[in-house]
Write a structure and sequence with these properties.
single chain, alpha+beta, 2 domains
């Protein structure tokens, strides 16, 4: 269940993301999650019992433009496994 800080807007974002998961969105670059935003992303992860442990932002030059990639480590609060995601 979402935490007590969730409002109606947060719940709608979480429900939308859960639908995306059922549709296998977000597993590949060509089929991304969309409309979630940073806040919704974190709320959704907390719903599934994940907590952010670490975050590193890398600055990359791609075709002469600076791009940012965040590498975030998450811990599952039940089994304590660590997972990383780059976004």
């Amino acid at each position: 269940m979402p935490d007590k800080t969730c409002n109606k807007s947060d719940l709608l974002l979480i429900a939308t993301d859960c639908q995306h998961i059922l549709e296998a969105k977000g597993l590949k670059m060509r089929n991304p999650l969309n409309g979630l935003g940073v806040g919704g992303f974190y709320k959704n992860l907390s719903t599934f019992h994940f907590k952010q442990k670490n975050r590193i932002t890398k600055h990359l030059k791609i075709h002469g433009e600076t791009r940012f990639v965040d590498i975030i480590d998450f811990e599952h609060l039940v089994d304590k496994t660590i997972s990383s995601i780059a976004i």
